[in-house]
Write a structure and sequence with these properties.
By secondary structure, the chain is of the alpha/beta class. Helices cover 40% and strands 18% of the residues. It contains 13 helices and 15 strands. Strands 3-4-5-6-7-8-9-10 form an 8-stranded parallel beta barrel, surrounded by 6 helices. The chain is globular and about 60 Å long. The protein starts with 10 loop residues before the first strand and ends with a helix.
Amino acid sequence: MATARNRTRPVRVGRTVIGGGGAVAVQSMCATRTQDVEATVRQVRQLVAAEADVIRIAVDSRKDVEALARVREAVPDATLSVDLQESYRLAPLVAPHVDKVRYNPGHLYHHERGKAVREKVAFIAEAAAANDCAIRVGVNCGSVDPELAEKFGDDDVSAMVESAVQHCAVLDELGFHRYVVSLKDSDPRKVVAGNVRFHELRPDVPIHLGVTEAGLPPDGIIKTRIALEQLLPRGIGDTIRVSLTLPFEEKWREIAVGRELLEDVAQGRFRSVPTFLDGGLNIISCPSCSRVENEAFIGLAQRVKEMTRYAKAYDITIAVMGCRVNGPGETDGADLGLWCAPAFVNLKRGSEHLGAFAYDAVLGRLKEELDRLVEERKGRE
């Protein structure tokens, strides 16, 4: 890539090196259920063929660990990362099968609250070091730990940056330096602000860039470009993930979009069209990853986008989330939120839970709430 890279420390992840001023690595995440070994192996191979530098797989149980071991046997040359979600104690079991372990500080806070966070991080770091693994500290605005959320109030960017800086300090104190940090949000402006501030504080740490829950193409691509086209030219960002809501068989498109974005930035071509930042309807939806508990979530997100077009002139945010891990917290900040369980969809208005509805019934109820919001917005004009 022609853009000058900031000289962060190099972090080896399998055969990929992140940071050190080298080329920006492109990542994706398997959308298949981890325990469906055949489908997961097929998707890993698909992403490898699309030139993914790192491929992430979610693990949330011992059965997932057993499946992960079989996946690794089938694709020994793929560079794999594992997402621990809320199950940090699985770290010693998964580390032998992957090249990088990712944990979320906010989720770590909630598990085994009687233990100090430092003790939990040390547990993960010890497992990573013993198995030649790197670590990603994955901070999300929507799931920052409650103590920092309370400390900073509405300034969630500061909470996110503080969380990242704190966890870097803990890993440094433990003598573990083979780590990468990500600071993500569904709002590109917060992604830019958070990463710029973090880089100023810790210019040595490699950064994983992405807009979380960017949503369906083309909106999700535009949101990602809005953030990354401001960060990459500054030399900020050592690896990227384009998080798109896609059918499972189309996850390779995340890699294709990422490669195109990097090439455009290198050639001075900037394509983002940030019209949504000036107001209007904003739909965010999470990428179709292996945490999704019902593939019907993808079709639902597409139907929500179509059904809500009539409200495009109003400043309303609707979040459509596919799992219990990020769903409850990430929908709190939206005007209307849907987070999908295996057999039903939870509907929320802000943090208020309005009920659980069948997948084929929730759209009508969502429209009722959207109509109310539109009338409220009209009344303010």
